[in-house]
Write the structure tokens for this entry.
Amino acid sequence: MPTHNCDLILVADDDPTSRRLLVRTLTNAGFQCQESGDGLETLKLVQADVPCLLLLDFDMPGLNGAEVLKQLRASNDPAAAQLPAIMLTGHGGEESEVRCLEAGANDFVTKPINPAVLRARIETQLRLRSMRDQLQQQNDELEAFRANTERDLAAARLTQQSLIPQKPPVLANDWDVAAVYRPVIQVGGDIYGWLRMADGRTLFWIADATGHGASAALLTTLAKLLFHHGSVEHKEPADIMQAVNTDFRSIFGARSFMTAMCVALDPKTGSAGVVGAGHPPLLIARFDGTTEAIRSSSPPLGLLDKSDFAETQIELGAGDAFLLYTDGLFGAEQVYAVDGTPVDLAKTANRTALTAHALLARIIEQACSANGEGPLPDDLAAVAVKRREDVA
């Protein structure tokens, strides 16, 4: 922020009599004054100690008032460049006023000087300077807050990235798994994962917490811990989801919630149990080109102390695939079929020859192109799991 002597007014006038009268008037009004008799001396005094305001005579020998102001406004010192300056001129009329303002003056006073008018103009400029300094201070504080927030988000991003699986799970060679995560900003409220259950099945899960940024990222961190904890103590996906709901609500009460869905897949048989809590429908793309949707049977996690988490059984044959995703994949304008299937998403998923990676890439491409040139409106996460076509 520019620094200046807040108690000092510099009076620059080559006429000693006029200068003394100005200093006496300002001193009687409670101001401290410093005197200068020419333009070069004025520049040196400002460079040594920037005053709070400059009273500058327009007509001075050598460097006149306009030339002094031109150099001050071009100064590398912000305090000098922004120094409030009131030009003193003996020329009346609009042309003189324009010359003063074009020279870079904040205001002007015509000679002979009316002390009351001069004091009023000085007080006005000092108030404006004070307001400008306060605004600059607020801008500096906002910039510091922004920088701190950016650092916090960067740290949260690294933390969240460490929680999101970087490699697909090790299943039998019959399965192909792909996943993607794209937050709106550095971090977001979506997360997914997979873990091996005690009975040999693999639990694929996905969650979407309320909000964005660091607070949402903290909820996703908690979600991963809760799903892992629930899978250790329970064997069925409905019981795991209930445990996650209980723990989540015990921490936040009803102040926060998140949607979630999980699929407990037996990779040997292709049987799977699906449980959803307020989450978008699980999409199943069959090898014959048809699609199915498994809707959530319970409200989002954290809303109720105890919900009826019903498990839906599905069978995945050769070439079949399922897709877990968050609502950022299709947005609020998506059209739904009667069974709850996102129509555009189902059309894209209806590509039987695609691998899980290619299927997911096609879906992401559609989601991005549908949003035009702008950024995605919400966090996006998806997991595609496909059984290979050559399964016996």
In short: The domain at 8-138 is CATH 3.40.50.2300 (Rossmann fold). Residues 332-338 have pLDDT under 50 and may be disordered. The first strand starts at residue 8 and ends at 12.
